[in-house]
Specification:
about 120 residues
């Protein structure tokens, strides 16, 4: 099982970024994939998740309307399109594979990518 996250960087408030998470070694047919983030000194928090079949999506209130999660079946890749970025979005972003329990809790995820840094600063 391997999850490879990429696409982070340094941007200004109001800018956009698209994160990618390439997955391999997993069965996707009924899977959910999620994005979490962790800022320095804070707990890891849920950002968004998507069910691989049916396109059901889940979002944290703090990103609803600004972030969009999607997936590409042919590439086994999950994306997080982040628009109207704010300084409070600054964190290391992780993708993860849901294995059970609440989709909103990090304890429901059994496989994690290495994280990609997103910094929003003027």
């Amino acid at each position: 099982v391997q999850l490879q996250a990429s696409g982070g960087g340094l941007v200004q408030p109001g800018d956009s970024l698209r994160l990618s998470c390439a997955a391999s070694g997993l069965t996707f047919s009924s899977a959910r994939m999620g994005w979490f983030r962790q800022a320095p000194g804070k707990e890891r928090e849920f950002v968004a998740a998507i069910r691989w079949s049916g396109d059901t999506t889940y979002y944290a209130d703090s990103v609803k309307g600004r972030f969009t999660i999607s997936r590409d079946d042919t590439e086994n890749t999950v994306y997080l399109q982040m628009n109207s970025l704010k300084p409070e979005d600054t964190a290391v972003y992780y993708c993860a594979f849901h294995v059970g329990g609440s989709v909103y809790s990090p304890y429901g995820y059994g496989h994690w990518g290495q994280g990609t840094q997103v910094t929003v600063s003027s």
